[in-house]
Amino acid sequence: MARLEQYAPRLSATGGLCPRRERIAKQLILANLGESLAIADLAQACALSRSHFSRAFKCTTGLSPQEWIRQQRIQRAKELITSSSLSLTQISLECGFCDQAHFCHMFTRSEGVNPMTWRNHHSRHKHQVIAA
């Protein structure tokens, strides 16, 4: 006798997202990092309610969806800071922050230094590695 649970998409045994839903959510986030992302849209893509999705996402990743998005935006900003000559304003908009002030605040909170200091330190370190 077949069990209904075999066929229905399920959460993982720990209450988190199943691997397919986790992949869908993360791919959607990363593909739209520079855009405004509504948790309701992520939940809809995973066929879950907003609250259920938020709980399951946190259970799976250890972070709320908003915090995970923020970390991905900061990571992308760090990549752009070290690999481009874009201004911090351009980088902040490219990474989905509403303005440079908010970007600087979130970056400083995450990295312990403001983006300009971080850029100066990493460009100096990059030049030292190249010169060696």
What does the secondary structure layout of this molecule look like, with pairings?
Elements: H1 19-31, H2 39-45, H3 50-61, H4 65-83, H5 88-94, H6 100-111, H7 115-131
- Indicate the low-confidence ranges by residue numbers: 1-12
Shape estimate? elongated
**Number of discrete domains:** 2
**Largest β-sheet summary:** none
Q: What is the CATH homologous superfamily assignment of the largest domain? A: Homeodomain-like
CATH topology group of the largest domain: Arc Repressor Mutant, subunit A
- Strand percentage lies at under 5%
The CATH architecture category of the largest domain equals: Orthogonal Bundle
Quote the average pLDDT: 87
- Classify the secondary structure makeup into a structural class: mainly alpha
Q: What's the total count of β strands?
A: 0
Order of helices and strands: HHHHHHH
The number of distinct helices, counting runs of at least 4 residues, comes to 7
